[in-house]
Batch of 2 targets.
Target 1
Amino acid sequence: MVKRAQTSKSSPLFTQADWDFDTLRRTFDAIEDVARTDLDLEVYPNQIEIISSEQMLDAYSSIGMPLMYHHWSFGKHFLGHERLYRKGARGLAYEIVINSDPCISYCLEENTMPLQALVMAHAAFGHNHFFKSNHLFEQWTDAEGILDYLEYARRYIAGCEEVHGVGDVETILDAAHALMPFGVFRHRRPRQLSLQEAEEQRLERLAAAEENVYYLWRTIPNRTGSERERDAALQERKREMQLPEENLLYFLEQYSPILQSWQREILRIVRNVGQYFYPQKQTKVMNEGCACFVHYYILNTLYAQGQLTDGAMLEILHSHTNVLTQPDFDDPRFSGINPYALGFAMMQDIRRICEEPEEEDREWFPDIAGKGDWRNVLKHAWANYRDESFIQQFLSPTVMRRFRMFAISDESSDSFCTVTGIHNTQGYRHLRDVLARDHDISTQEPDIQIVDADLLGDRCLHLRTVRRNGIPLDTASKEATLKYVERLWGYKVEIAEANSTS
Amino acid sequence: MAHFVDRRLNPKDKSLSNRRRFLKRVRSQIKKAVEDAVRERGIADVDRAKNVTVPTEGVAEHTFKQASDEGWRERVFTGNKTFQAGDKVEKPPSGGAGGAGREGSPDGEGEDDFLFALTREEFLDFFFEDLELPDLVKQSLKEITKTHPRRAGYSTSGAPANINVARTMRNAFGRRIGLRRPKEKETDELLERITLLEQISVPTREQQEELIALRAKHDKLLRRRKVIAYIDPLDVRYNNFEQQPEPNANAVMFCLMDVSASMGAREKDLAKRFFMLLHLFLNRRYEKTDIVFIRHTHDASEVDEETFFYSPQTGGTMVSTALVMMKQVIDERYPPSEWNIYAAQASDGENFGGDSSKCATLLNEELMRICQYFAYVEIVGEDEAQLINSEASGMELWQSYRQVSDIWPNFAQKRVARISDIYPVFRELFARDPVGKSHG
């Protein structure tokens, strides 16, 4: 806690626990003042919406988006959350924030005024700044268009349900959802489209997709044209497919021989939604760390200026520490490393290294140690890194010691695990490597590619996955998911598992 | 500068449609859970909301994922206390790849089940799905109908209260265009031009001529506007209602329960559960159904719901008294020509000697004629459970009722020995295509 200035410059923004819109506005302005003038944050315009707990549950179940098409799985999540919430096993999030322009933050009506202040600083400035400045979001998501796109998606899918029946649409959505994690471009960047462009392209695609299908039809036996010609044509077509392809949904959308155009459009919608969330998966630590750092700094500044009462500050700190708890590995509450805690600790430590470095820090971070300009160091990090590279670059020995980190390697065939490194001089670099790898999303999800579509033979679609470190696919879910792929491809689908050579 | 929006008044239940879709998907599992609820619960809270567990099969959302128990992994953990690099740690006996706390879910929910809560409404919907009162409309009453106004398009005459403004204005608009009614703007423009010309003190010849022409035109337009009305009586349309016949669906259910000394706590509990279901079912499905509660020992009395279910009373047994009482109530309040009459009776089958044949006579001669459906449930001891399977054997009352059911297809009799029998028997008695009706 920052020490309070001897003479309070201003009277507190609020003294009551209850909030009203005037107080919210006043507090927001004070927060914005610190965020813009002191931290120099860049944010989308803010829209803050007060919602009830029921509505928060609604938002939860439609993956946090204000509008979404209908699907039973959202209902399942709703019921799951609702039960846990009602029996008190789980509280609701204080807020949900949406990467859109304007940036929408949902605040729960039950929050007390100090909590609303915390939430506004956290979401409307912390997350908002991160969404606007981080390069992944900038390159891969379209904050301006997302709400329009979701509205379009909802209308389109509702339209399909009217024409083709809820059951048929559900079948496609089930299959598409199963492949959602494999419906993103990891390396190629998709071009951003405005809504009109998207609509125009949809019609074009519709025509093109139909042509594709006819193309396949032409290859069935008893057609004119010599076998050789047909083979050549198919080879040509396969070249067009640009195999191997990592984006399963994209491939199926483009080349599946059985899908109708509306089904292809649904795949595309699911794929686009998946792509929109892809950067969030890669920046969990940074995103939350940034938001926590920002709210902590802003609220402490307000407190130092006398704009927050002691009571409000205590309540804020109470919630703050609740969120940022990192239980030890042997604690029953332990469920991995808390991204809030890690991100916040690293960013606080960057500030410390800039301001009061020790000998060790000068050795580890010669570029920033003692430079004093922590604001720009952090802003640079927020803009240009993702979790994996951020940890690789900025995880300091101090933080590792504070968390008392240790690395364990586990070979499933052995009866024991081995401690491969702890928080000491020999272990720091190893720990940092392991933790960075742990946050690399490509090691967390299986690597699956489409390598061949046997257009000449039985049209079998061949997938290939490379086992990293000998980890195979989970058998039950593999079988079930393959059925979904078969449903979309229309013919047999096989998957081969290969061991990585490295 | 921020924009604050108060969304609290927005409609909630945005997820309602998703929720319904999900329930539809797990329909069969829910039905099973609902049946279990009847068995396990006390009488008072059969109809509470219910936690339902369904196996993840069918509701699982599969995707390709890495197996959790194979291969090599390396992870970072926090809170090291004594470990040094190179230490070997025994794995916990079951699973536990990678460390503690990973496998167990915090709320004790297994990975195999998905647990959620149904609301009371949803619960009851599942509970009474496919059930109905048989032959709700009396055969003989089908001609005697009530009528109910229903929308039937538009008409050119009607009461002013029924004017359909949109339709009327549309007609008027069409007519005005068709007959080229001059617009107010046109006359105004002419008038403006006229005043302008009039103001010229020394008009030229041309201007004078124009003025005359304009005046004539203006008059013509005004006349035309007057002749072609803005809204003409021709345009007016009224919402039309037709009186459509509706079959008579007044229904009354008589619940007759034996509370004599021979009915022990177990028997009473079973009987009450049966009536509780019946009560719930009627309340839920048929808003306008009357329910008459009659309980009897050696003497019958009409009681209210509270007394019927919760008040203890005991004595001898005279089943016919209940039937007499029922007849009396019908005569007083429910003329059979206007009401669909149903009855459900529960008893342990013990009766005062000779009274059973009197019951059969009462039914045959008086009641069955005016009843749509009469269901008799006999509660037998658990050791007599095998009786359930043999129709022929049974107490005197059962035997007498068998004669009744031979004559009347709308008489059904069933036996119940355990709590678990109640729901199936109930379903059988009130299934949409009643099976219990023909054989009894």
Target 2
Amino acid sequence: MDKPLTKNIEEGRAPFNFKQYEAAGGYDSVRKVVTMAPNDVVTLVKDAGLGGRGGAGFNTGLKWSFVPAPDGGPRYLVINGDEMEPGTFKDRLLMENDPHLLVEGMITTCFALQSSCGYIFLRGEYTVAEERLLAAIAEAYENGMLGKNILGSGFDLDIYLHTSAGRYICGEETALINALEGKRANPRAKPPFPQVSGLWGRPTVVNNVETICNIPGIVANGVDWYQGLGLGEFVGTRISGVSGRVNNPGCWEVPVGITFRQLLEDYAGGMQDGYELKAFLPGGGSTDFLMPEHLDLVMDPGAVQKAGSRLGTSLIMVLDDKTCPVGCIRNLIKFFAHESCGWCTPCRDGLPWTEQMLDKLEEGTGSLKDIEILKEMTGYMGIGNTFCALAPGAMEPLQSGLKYFIDEFEAHVDHGCGYSK
Amino acid sequence: MNNLIATTAIKARQLTDEEIHEIEHEKTHYPYTQAVGLEALKIVQKYQGWVSDESLLAVSEYLNISPDELEGVATFFNMIFRRPVGKNVILLCDSVACWMLGCDSLKAHFTKTLGIDYGETTEDDLFTLIPVPCLGDCDKAPVMMIGRETYRNLTTDKIDEIIAEYRSKN
């Protein structure tokens, strides 16, 4: 099976430099794209059916097509490398181990968008990725893949690396744009969408790292090749992974269309001895719990949605039978309460309040009334009641936890947490 | 934190040549200087260890960003320190995968061996302990960073070795 995202990645080996990367077929998509019409590239990516890999899964080419026609002013591509969703560690793999793939994807994408400036918005804690991306960008300049008149095509492009300083909300694309402008990273109202008015009020596309790493393969090899990578009706490959008490935690490039069971058993080696699967979060801390009966679902956004959750980042976290679900949810809510930007009241005040009630339950001082209020909270902080998707995301593990583990919540009222720590 | 610097007599310090050189380099990446604010604070912190009021005012004057606006940015981000920290900042991940695999007991171990709680610095100024949200290394949990280094699959024994290593280096 072709693995376009990870073909150059080998554990324990330094990432390819420019020469090695090029010898392995790298930068072919740039050579090809400069002979194409930009709009044809957008159509190609749209037809390929690549969904965004940041969690929302929106068709990438369609997202690009909302950028208005060039007016002579700047337009930007911004890569969201602010990976901070609890339980998610896939973009780290790509950026640390094959930085040229992201750079190539950005060049090809910028050509399609007729943009001459790209930023990588990188999580500050990813220090290895920072060093390797800077080296790859410098090599791309030295070899004429960045700068003026790339490959004699008349296409100019500069790419800059911005390292952030740790705030989950920067992963929200309009908050990310504010942060890149040097402001507090509060989200902006939409519309206008960034494609129309984004960075410094100019047309801007914000794409996830893994999304853009798919572009070189699609442009170089075409729609049929890309669609053939998936199983059955599903297209492409994606990075999926598992954390928690499994035998072989990690992340791997898998064909889209495998089931959760295949990922858990064939790739992650199943549960560790002495632990049973109680539930799992399918794609990060802001997704609803799924149960063992959902293991045979295909890891596809549509299929997961029907089961009441979201595929999100497709890195699953297993909750084992020796770990308290209430404690797990409290940990997640603590994360979201800490990372709320404070802009809108339901999130700023609702999340800490929720955290306090979960603290009380864990300590054995909670009441049935608290559980009732927790249920109400999932509505108060649901979609439509907050400025952005942070608080609604935070409510997903809580609302599904209250559905699947209500007995355990109620058992906490009299006795607190009975699990050993 | 919460310094009402505009109402006090605190004055900007002089930025060093190294700081100015790096800030000038960052300025070439953006069409507007406001965008350099966070990068400039990080540069200052790299050399000074933290961002004092005097440093914040210096960056504010140098980039022509109002002190209030820059303070808004400085206090927003987890990794900008507006209080002095020790020579080595330990960032212990306390998010879900690390929690499931025992980061609470690692935290207790740090508190026992170093005598500090979250947000505190050892008396010899060598270590500050801070919790950090998900470090994106969940398959190797529990994890932490010290400075720019990441340490994975942690145990209390491993932590003792790492601490000893840093002590011998300093």
